[in-house]
């Protein structure tokens, strides 16, 4: 699969998910985005770039921090995400927020335009993330900060999902996936540098960053039920998996997941999963 086909598929998946993305009552991206912004700690007046901003899980917490004197620019390859985030910015009267359709691998900004670059669960979708990250370094002012999140995964996990979910997905249901969408292929092609903190640190240093920190911390994912989780999974990266499964396998996986997730609930209580998230921060060299 060439890079542009992959990117179009990713954009199409998030365009069709945008209307309900992070709005199905499942808590995950919003608390993660808020936590990432806490870690990056933009100050009043700072200029922030959020790469792969989606509907604004980081944009709006960042806007609260930088205030009217600051600026928060959210970019995303999916136009429908940008439309939803733009509506939200208007509702909040957030004049310091600017949203643009832009490929995160080709950020079109002048050098030193930002004090902080963020990317929550978005860097994992960039086909050549290290090259993109190297392009963010010159966009930062001296001492500027990079902060992003990713799943905590290993080489055999489905690339866009935390391992706990990969463990619930029977491998035999994935055998019919086209080769280029097999978890191992995607993982090795795009995200293997994120699995080991030492590789990650070395990669960021080569990209022009220093003082790299890698902290794994859980986000408490809460969904009303297994069914609610499965419906939600169609609105995030797992949509790429659903899209490539044959209808019978899709149905089998749906049933298997609902059963195993409901078995993890405490009676009729909600499904609560402590989901490890990797928070990476770094500063740019002067
Ligand atoms: C899982 S969502 C995360 C969105 C948001 N950061 C959040 O935390 O809710 C991944 C986002 O990355 C965007 N994305 C994927 N590839 C991209 C690219 N090449 N350039 C910009 N955005 C991209 C998707 O469209 C999607 O909105």
Automatic annotation (TrEMBL):
Keywords: Methyltransferase, Transferase
Methyltransferase domain sequence ranges: 45-159
MF GO annotations: methyltransferase activity
Pfam families tied to this protein: Methyltransf_31 (PF13847)
Enzyme class: transferase
Keyword Transferase: yes
Listed InterPro entries: Methyltranfer_dom, SAM-dependent_MTases_sf
Domain of life: Bacteria
The protein's Enzyme Commission number: 2.1.1.-
UniProt name for this protein: Class I SAM-dependent methyltransferase
Species per Swiss-Prot/TrEMBL record: Streptomyces galilaeus
Taxonomic lineage: Bacteria, Bacillati, Actinomycetota, Actinomycetes, Kitasatosporales
